[in-house]
# Entry
Amino acid sequence: MLEAQTTDLSLAVSLLGSGIVAVALFKRLGLGSVLGYLAAGLAIGPFGLKLVTHPEAILHVAELGVVMFLFIVGLEMRPAKLWSLRKDIFGVGVGQVALSGAALTGVGAALGMSPPVAFVAAMGFVLSSTAIVMQILEERGVVATPKGQRIVSILLLEDLTIVPLLAGVALMAPVPSASAGPRWLDVATALGAIAGLLTAGLWLLNPLFRLLADARAREVMTAAALLVVLGAALLMELGGLSMAMGAFLAGVLLSESSFRHQLEADIEPFRGILLGLFFLGVGMSLDLAVVARDWQRILLLVVAFMTVKGIATYALARLTGAANRESWYRAVLLSEGGEFAFVLYAAAANEGLFAADVSARLTAAVIISMSLMPLATVVLRRLLPPAAESLEGVEEADGLRAHVLIIGFGRFGQVVSQALLARGFEVAIIDTDTEMIQAAARFGFKIYYGDGTRLDVLRASGAENARAIAVCVDDGATASRIVELVKESFPHAKLLVRAKDRVHALELTRLHVDYQIRETFESALAFGAAALRVLGVSAEEAAEIAEDVRTRDRERFAVELASGDVLGAAKLLRVKPEPQPFHKPRTQAEPLNEDARAVLTAPADTADTRDAGERAAP
# Structure
């Protein structure tokens, strides 16, 4: 008994340890987590170190990771959004399956397979790996983008295709199974499973979660979330359908629920661990003995199937209006076989359609393709040139004339422009962020495209006639280059510059700009003064403390400017790492005064909400 427990514990430690080490290493190499899991599985599997001898058992359990993954995807797919993707699902998706299936069937026939075997082998390879593709899309943060949504639509249609394919395998079997029931009964069972899931999702799930939420038992909510996912998967499996598709439908039905975010948080830890375990299981399942014995045929299958499927995918993408970069990306991402191929090939073997050696070769080819695809995406990303920015609706600076030229229209530049426009000054604004320019146009701001580090662009932007030039870019080195250009070519203009930090402020002062300000200093002082008032300090005393900090900073800045040594100036002025109280601390908390209450009840300032990336609309 103790030996069995030790063995189980050793298995768990082997799986977790190998996955953690491999994923950390492969992520550091820029190869992604999926390839790390696959490599770890191969290393510890029956054809590696033999720490795991029955990968099929692990793979069977780990398939729940794919199920949970599609449940979370479903939570993000509200019915209205899913309906909006109907053209991609039933248009591009059907085209993908039909074109790739026909092309790969031809490849199978050319390799000497009989028509039924070639068709089933091809269709198994057509069904791309939903788990691997979705993991890569998620890691790159493109699931919610239009490009990502089109790929998700294709994957959904491919997952649906497994149902008629399994029925087709039974029909093509050389000898019909005696235990097989009437076809109409199978169809009725599948429709009944879908109807039952829809009924539960529409009328039972939300009241159930509301009741459990009122009980305020967190562990029960987590158990209920798992019950919904696994129950939906089981119902679809009993109906002869895909478990993953059942979980996806359950997610869609709960996507409008007020418990959506809680469900996602409860499922996420299980999803991550089980999905990693699934990839480990796939790596373990690669039979190196079969590969070594028949490596030439398997290599030919992998190269031929991946190449032809990639070409068909690329051609369809271009025909449906996708850009060249997106078409290449889709072709590589969908070039591999997937986990449903194992189900289809196993069914074909059970029905006598596949010989044992054919099934082993095809399964090995699919696993190898699943292992190669993440690596292929890394290579493609390095080979393709960077995506060109869309200049639609963007006008380049040319012949501008204004009182003030603002360079950079991020969160800082937006606030600066408000005061100038309110006073009636003419303002010309340039920036290099096309997305921001397009977003600003929707709010009535006319921003021109222009790189302030180029002299010709500054001339075209009206720098020769501007009374003042405000440099509001968020990169210190860029700001300094602009300052040097302006000081040399347009010395008449007053130069006001946003300083990135203290060192940058010193540099700008030595360049003799007319005004510089550290981008966070004054706002942080105001924040600190507000914090004092909230804590019961009077408004007058808080203002005194803020002014004292400001004075000390000016003195230190002057010494640093003269000495050129920031650390030396700090020692000279005896700047201590721990802040000292300006006044003796109170021994007893005072009640909040009117200023403190005003701070706590004041509405949030929404005029400046952008981060350093400065991608939001003004």
In short: The beta strands are 395-396, 404-407, 427-431, 448-449, 468-471, 494-499, 515-518. The longest helix spans residues 356-383.
